[in-house]
Every structure is written in structure tokens, then in C-alpha cells.
Amino acid sequence: MRPATVAAGLLVCAAAAMAAAALTAGGDGEEPGRAATVATATPEPAAAARDGLAVWAANGCGSCHTFAPANAHAPVAPDLGATLKGMPASYIRESIVDPNATATAGYTTGMMPEDYSERISPAQLERLVRFIRDGVPD
């Protein structure tokens, strides 16, 4: 991976983390715990997409994958809009947590990190899967 690509991914991750911190910090005199409770309620569809995009950015997915809903254009790994067309959420989930289970045509296994099941909480994983699934044409 090119150093510039890694640096850009890290900047996106930092921006997403700062945005998440600002959203959950309150800022209007509320106690931080109360603001965090409100932020974890079942999100509206637009909020779910933002949450999924934040997980996408925080994990650097756009550093390798092309995916139009994330405005990501990276030629290293498969274009998710094309390769996941018509695939169920279960396939997307498996592709993230066990990326070597199935290789996409034209790509080899062993390129994607295999520890996303440890890095991404189950709730974050579901947000990411929903974001990807909702952004892939049927």
C-alpha cells in the first residue's frame, strides 16, 4: 500500500473519530453519559448510513475498496458495488470477518486483514454491513 494512501486513510479515521466524539459529547450542558445514551438509540435510516460510513472510515475500508456510497475510489481491492451485487448481508458479514473464505474473481485471498472480528464490535459490524448492503444495487 502506498504511504500517501495510508496517510489519507489515517486522516479520514481521525476525522471520523473527532466527529463521533463531538456528537456524543453533548455540548449543551448535558452530562456526557446521557448524550451517549441518546446516540446509541436505534438510528433512523440516514443516521444508520452515517454510522456505517463512520465504521467504514474508521477501519480504512476506502483505502483499498471502491464503493460509490462512501465516495471511495481505490483500485487495490474489489469494487464492492459490483462484486456484492445481489449478495445477502450474511455474505457481506462473512467477507469482512473471514475474508479468505471466498476469493472474488480476479483477486487473491490474503490481501485483506483477517482481524476485523476483533477490531470491530458486533454493533459496529452490523452498522457497516447495513451500510454496505444498502449501498449495493440489487
Outline of the structure:
By secondary structure, this protein is mainly α.
Give an account of the 3D structure.
By secondary structure, this protein is an all-alpha fold. The protein has one domain (3-135): Cytochrome Bc1 Complex, Chain D, domain 2. The protein has 7 helices and no strands. Helix 3 packs across helix 7 (122-135). Residues 1-40 have low confidence and may be disordered.
Structural class: mainly alpha
Counting structural domains, the number is 1
What is the string of helix and strand elements?
A: HHHHHHH
Q: Which consecutive residue ranges, at least 5 long each, have pLDDT under 50?
A: 1-40
**Overall pLDDT level:** 77
Give the number of DSSP strands: 0
CATH C-level name: Mainly Alpha
CATH architecture: Orthogonal Bundle
Draw up the topology in text.
Layout: H1 3-24, H2 32-39, H3 45-58, H4 80-83, H5 89-97, H6 116-119, H7 122-135
Helix pairs in contact: 1-3, 3-7
List descriptors.
mainly alpha, 138 residues, globular, single chain, Cytochrome Bc1 Complex, Chain D, domain 2, disordered N terminus
